[in-house]
Specification:
This protein is α+β, with helices and mostly antiparallel strands. It has 9 helices and 21 strands.
Length: about 425
């Protein structure tokens, strides 16, 4: 039993242990037909299979097999670095140059350690090690966002003058509406906004001119106008009609199409029209770990309400489910304990939302999200954040896309009959 054979066993074991720590996801988080299964769970399983193969090679004195499996991590790193550079050309080169250089070093070191292998054996070993190349390629390709699946409702930004506030309400210069919600006070900002953006779909870390422009708050006036807003009183409530122009396809990690804050509630709860009479506590949640967040997502034929396990991370517990069709209003009732305060109907959310599976959450969770709760502070306002496509739920920094176009956010706010 040669030293080189046992070196393959030890080096591969270290690689498998590292992959288990960095890439592992519970089986079933991503289905087999999702590239992220092979980029995470599948890669970890393959690494441990390689460890077993190296152990067999060492025990049975098969140097060609030992060399072949010993080369696999280097081949995977090489393929991953090269494919990452091709898939994400605008990202920092260091993200991919590092794995590529480490792959080259691994290959050279492993070949030199197995110098006793014949030339024919080396050719066979290289052929065997090529089996690891797809696992390297999928590390990049599986993390590239799919083509945009959001569906802008309008063809162009409507002509609109300065919005006016009906009696009892107020509007800020940036278009945020404040209005009563029973005994509470509601603040609504109804525009599509991006917290971050990526030029090529890689992690949204770089601040480039394109990113800076994309993440600017949409202006309601001026030569760079990208938003329109009107607020009218109707039937004892309010109708908010907002539009936001997104000038190009945008890949982002965090975004929103409406941001609601309700202050003055002691025991806030939400009720979704789609899931019937069930009330969901708007609990305090933490980040990056701690108390879990609650959220809902539209699947295309249902609205599903979940609770995370720690902060925004899974596994996710399904709390409720009800039928919901594309184009149907998303209705939400805000309650103080068991007492309804006001009802919000988002008329365009399901019509425009992407129903792609989330690359960060898995478990069938979609990229559209209605996240609700109090952030970190038990005395903080209730926050309800809606996004047509976002990857804030789950683990990771993968992005998802919004299609260029004009998005509409119509919200009907009505007082609840049983409220104060």
């Amino acid at each position: 039993m040669r030293f080189s054979g046992w070196m393959s066993v030890s080096s591969l074991t270290l690689c498998a242990a590292g992959a288990s720590w960095a890439l592992w996801r519970r089986p079933g988080v991503f289905p087999l037909d999702d590239g992220l299964f092979w980029a995470t769970t599948g890669t970890v399983l393959a690494a441990w299979v390689a460890v077993v193969a190296a152990l067999v090679a060492a025990l049975t004195a098969r140097p060609t097999l030992a060399l072949g499996v010993g080369l696999m991590p280097g081949v995977m790193l090489l393929a991953g670095g090269l494919s990452g550079r091709l898939v994400f050309p605008s990202a920092e080169a260091a993200f991919f140059a590092g794995p590529f250089a480490l792959g080259v070093l691994w290959l050279v070191t492993t070949v030199r350690a197995h110098r006793a292998v014949t030339r024919r054996g080396r050719a066979l070993a290289l052929s065997l090690s090529a089996l690891a190349a797809p696992l390297g390629v999928v590390q990049a390709t599986a993390r590239a966002p799919l083509p945009a699946d959001t569906r802008p409702a309008l063809e162009a930004l409507p002509d609109a003058g300065p919005p006016t506030a009906p009696p009892g309400t107020s509007l800020s210069a940036d278009g945020a509406l404040e209005a009563p919600c029973g005994a509470a006070r509601l603040r609504l900002r109804p525009f599509v906004e991006f917290t971050d953006a990526s030029e090529d779909g890689f992690w949204a870390l770089r601040r480039t001119p394109v990113v800076e422009k994309t993440t600017e708050a949409p202006a309601l006036a001026g030569p760079g106008r990208r938003a329109a807003l009107s607020v009218t009183a109707a039937d004892g409530g309010l109708v908010v009609d907002a539009a936001t122009s997104v000038l190009l396809d945008v890949a982002s990690h965090l975004s929103r199409t409406a941001d609601v804050q309700v202050s003055g509630l002691v025991a806030p709860h939400l009720r979704f029209d789609a899931t019937g009479a069930t009330r969901y506590p708007a609990s305090t949640y933490d980040y990056p770990r701690g108390r879990p967040v609650h959220f809902a997502t539209f699947t295309g034929d249902a609205l599903v309400v979940y609770r995370a396990t720690s902060a925004e991370k899974g596994p996710f517990v399904e709390l409720g489910r009800g039928p919901a069709s594309r184009g149907a209003p998303l209705g939400i009732t805000v309650l103080e304990g068991e007492v309804p305060q006001c009802h919000l109907a988002f008329l365009d959310f399901t019509a425009q939302a992407s129903t792609q599976r989330s690359p960060t959450a898995g478990e069938g969770v979609r990229v559209n999200v209605v996240q609700f709760g109090r952030f970190r502070d038990d005395a903080a306002p209730l926050g309800v954040v809606l996004s047509l496509a976002s990857t804030g739920i789950g683990s990771g920094l993968e992005t998802t896309r919004h299609r260029a176009g004009t998005y509409r956010t119509r919200v009907v706010i009505t007082p609840s009959p049983s409220g104060p």
